Automatic annotation (TrEMBL):
Superkingdom per UniProt: Eukaryota
Region described as Disordered: spans on this chain: 150-171
GO cellular component: extracellular space
Family recorded in the similarity comment: Belongs to the calycin superfamily. Lipocalin family.
UniProt biased composition (Acidic residues): 159-171
Keyword field contains Hydrolase: no
Signal sequence, renumbered to the chain: 1-15
GO MF annotation, one: odorant binding
Protein's UniProt name: Lipocalin/cytosolic fatty-acid binding domain-containing protein
Sequence ranges assigned to domain Lipocalin/cytosolic fatty-acid binding in this UniProt record: 29-167
One family name in Pfam for this protein: Lipocalin
Taxonomic path: Eukaryota, Metazoa, Chordata, Craniata, Vertebrata
Entry keyword set: Secreted, Signal, Transport
Amino acid sequence: MKTVLLTLLLGLVCAAQEAPAELEPSQITGDWRSILTAADNKEKIEEGGLLRAYVRQFECSDRCSSLSIKFYVKIQGECTLVNIVAQRKGDVYHVGYMGANFFEMLPISDSTLAIYGENSDGVKTTKVTQLLAKEDGVTQEDIQQYEELNKERGIPTENIEDLTETDDCPP
């Protein structure tokens, strides 16, 4: 009897687990704007930080097995365009930029997307997130979901930076 109950319980738990929704290329490809960013090592995302990026565009290739990313970083106050290509393995993308990185893309709404990544610079691993929008604005609900993502990943809410305040890079 215990075996039957345990089997039933295990079946219910497995059924309750949702598989992560796979993003379609049309949900990713296009122009995006960085709205918020956060990290467990805040100095990496503060102004002048090595991981403070202003995303502009994603382009999927081969059903998103590779992802071209265009973004700006500020070097000594000047916007510098960076183009990189990330390769997908499962649900995670891998790319070399300021160390080894992996990240996953998480849909928030039709016009917003969160990115969770980890950057290993050879000394320390930093957890980083960004909230991106197809338009400049996001809803309060989008922000709440983004804050919840940060809590789940161990990134303090006080480490969230508003990128729109310093984004003066070209569109």
